[in-house]
Write a structure and sequence with these properties.
The chain has ten helices and seven strands. The protein is α/β, with parallel strands linked by helices.
């Protein structure tokens, strides 16, 4: 079966001038896709495109400057991408991490929702129409976060946007499957603890990778690996937490509702010991 990530198909990456977005763009270039890098930081964008072309001089790499919440920027991105040929992949990576509490910083809530959620809804709408009318295979990857599932306290606005994005992507995957079978697919990327400027604002190009983190390149490689395997959830662990530990954290969060525990009981003093026993597997050992 034809893959979405393939030679000469167009691959679009929003927020692609740095971090995970840049790593994805670089990985798509090695697959000989026609890469469109979209970013609002024009200086960083030009530097990223120049570097990508220096490393892959025979490849096609285009930069499109714009702000993802702006309708004219989204229209420009769609127009430029379509001018290059059939679209293979759209990666909705652009996002912000600015904090806002449950009843505070309403304007920050609006900005975070606008960039992390609404802009993706509005961008994917015209792209989906085009992809459904293509003969070739294509895919949309939305960059979520495990924090949208476990929702650790401290940044309600960010967690809510990523939770909303998870549901949106699940709905999108279902609707595409009923309309197009496997010709157009949707996938949710769940990065782990990744060494990027979003997580480490003071990092430099020469900074050593902190213990416990994955590199952005590892995340990009995981996308290709798991999409080719047909996965919906493109899960990324890190060097600090195993898949088994993450699985137990995710299961505990879901079970808060099923077992009628207090909200986010993982951080509730009455349940912390029980959670630690569960997440380490000590409860299973005790019951054997």
């Amino acid at each position: 079966m034809q893959q979405a990530i393939r030679k000469n198909a167009v691959g679009i990456v929003t927020g692609g001038a740095s971090g995970i977005g840049y790593a994805i763009a670089r990985r798509l270039a090695t697959e000989e896709m026609k890469v469109v890098v979209f970013d609002k930081d024009e200086t960083a964008l030009n530097a990223a495109v120049t570097e990508l072309l220096e490393k892959s001089p025979t490849r096609t790499v285009y930069g499109v400057a714009g702000d993802i919440p702006t309708p004219s920027s989204r229209r420009t991105l769609l127009r430029e991408a379509l001018s290059l040929g059939d679209i293979g992949l759209l990666v909705n990576n652009a996002g912000i991490l600015k904090g806002a509490g449950p009843w505070e910083s309403i304007e920050q809530w609006r900005q975070t929702m606008e960039i992390n959620f609404w802009s993706i809804v509005e961008l994917q709408a015209p792209f989906v129409d085009r992809l459904l009318n293509q003969e070739s295979c294509s895919a949309i990857v939305n960059v979520g976060s495990k924090e949208g599932i476990t929702a650790p306290p401290g940044n309600a606005a960010y967690n809510v946007t990523k939770a909303a994005l998870q549901v949106l992507t699940e709905q999108l995957a279902h609707e595409l499957r009923t309309r197009a079978g496997s010709k157009v697919t949707a996938h949710l990327l769940l990065p782990g603890y990744t060494f990027t400027a979003m997580n480490f604002p003071r990092m430099a190009a020469t900074s050593p990778t902190p213990p416990g983190t994955w590199s952005a390149d590892q995340v990009a490689e995981r996308i290709v690996e798991r999409m080719n395997a047909g996965d919906f959830c493109l899960y990324c662990q890190d060097e600090e937490v195993t898949w088994e530990t993450d699985r137990r954290r995710l299961q505990w969060s879901i079970d808060d509702i099923i077992k009628n525990r207090p909200a986010w009981s993982r951080w509730h003093p009455d349940f912390q010991a029980q959670f630690q026993a569960y997440v380490t597997g000590a409860d299973q050992v005790k019951n054997q």
